Automatic annotation (TrEMBL):
Keywords: Apoplast, Copper, Lignin degradation, Metal-binding, Oxidoreductase, Repeat, Secreted, Signal. Binds 4 Cu cations per monomer. The keyword Signal applies. This is Laccase. Its cofactor is Cu cation. NCBIfam families: laccase. InterPro entries: Cu-oxidase-like_N (IPR011707), Cu-oxidase_2nd (IPR001117), Cu-oxidase_C (IPR011706), Cu-oxidase_fam (IPR045087), Cu_oxidase_CS (IPR033138), Cu_oxidase_Cu_BS (IPR002355), Cupredoxin (IPR008972), CuRO_1_LCC (IPR034288). Residues 1-35 form the signal peptide. It is an enzyme of class 1 (oxidoreductase).
Amino acid sequence: MGTPRGLRNAGSSSSACRFLAAFAVLLTLPTLTAGLTRHYTFNVQMTNVTRLCVTKSIPTVNGQFPGPKLVVREGDRLVVKVHNHMNYNVSFHWHGILQLRNGWADGPSYITQCPIQGGGSYVYDFTVTGQRGTLWWHAHFSWLRVHLYGPLVILPKRGEGFPFPRPYKELPPIMFGEWFNADTEAVINQALQTGAGPNISDAYTFNGLPGPTYNCSSKDTYKVKVQPGRTYLLRLINSALNDELFFGIANHTLTVVEADANYVKPFTAKTLVISPGQTMNLLLTTAPNPGSPAYAMAIAPYTNTQGTFDNTTAVAVLEYAPTRASATGNNNLPLPPLPRYNDTNAVANFSSKFRSLATARYPARVPRAVDRHVLFTVGLGTDPCPSNQTCQGPNGTKFAASINNNSFVRPRVALLEAHYQRRYAGVLMANFPTAPPHPFNYTGTPPNNTFVTHGTRVVPLAFNTSVELVLQGTSIQGAESHPLHMHGFNFFVVGQGFGNYDPVNDPANYNLVDPVERNTVSVPTGGWVAVRFLADNPGVWLMHCHFDVHLSWGLSMAWLVNDGPLPSQKMLPPPSDLPKC
């Protein structure tokens, strides 16, 4: 394939002792040679799938739902050839991959590339540099990711184990999702037309299976087998479209060891909360003498929305071998005690436990000095109803969403291409507000005027700028949490709290020693979160709410990071097969 578009990793040596200590762990993992090129082919096609006794034609990769698992090792080059056999446009995002200097492989339509049109193809070609752990891939056009998603597992370099006790085995990754009986493209298109909130999903799923709590779905139950008295590595991914989720396994305690492909100081929990876009690695230690042959795994929503939501619970089954739990009837297993759907305190307590390892091998390189201080308000708003129609949003308006009251307008061409060619006129404006244009009591009584402004605006940053970004939730149309995902970077979560951010007193409580490093963080309901990152990756990088309904309403923006002075600090040229708009 020629020279890879991503950076290559130089590799590192390990001592014999470290190798031997890690070897037992690596024996349980797929055998790959470091630094190789991994080739995958995605044939994107319509496939008939039945759930809840409803059969419909959905977009799939290679006819699979969910899509195929991609496995690489840190330092590998990944080449994915995508062939679009659908009538829909499509593009793919490799969620959490940093794509150093290589935004052409990042995937969000009209940001880093034009979408792949029906009958077209594109090769995503990138190197996985300095990352290991659980990430995932998904479509990044309209709501197509509801069906087009799969795991992306990055194994450590050969000779490097995990910085936690070795697991006996690795279980298959679990991806949480949503199933709609309706056509999701019709759902969001109708909502955007009427101004109302979109229809909600009909079920949550474990790896595409809803399970026995739903109509006609006992046969579509995800099951995983374990042995007594063993410790397993379990990878969780929330690929749900619009819902944060609680997760638990009845009568089992879980140990969290990784978040968003970054190791964390291990901590135990009986209930987890995971936002769309986030991943977690867990150690699951099974009972040496289980009191039951099977236990329920369950997910249920966390939300404070004032609108309707899918308030159901999906169940999967943890089966102990050699007993066949199915013979005992596992449709009525006791559920794990998950928090109430609006239990914000449970979420805050769980979120506060995450800490980076901050060791010599896995340092927390949080910027200590800050060049740019940015405050973004994040929340909902409204648009006036066009004079020739009746709208079904709040008080006859249309729902909208914004950052600093700017609702992002999708451009007609890809921003990254415009930036590379320095052709900005008519495409983007470099005047995204870095402070709220109209300050108010963000978590108190909302202002009378909730209309948003619209524009394709970016925040330009000089290369190597250190940024502190405070994301402040608002109460407009109701306070709720917003999982914000940043493309092209990880960030450090240095502080969070409820109410309005206090720039005088809150920074004194920042954690600058071992803050967790993530690519997706939820702005607390009625609160704020502060993150820091170093803008050392040139390109145009989207940041957006990972609730796709809010993304559709405009809750996104982009960072435009300029080239640095050295050749190694400049964007790579675009590939020859980059799709055209």
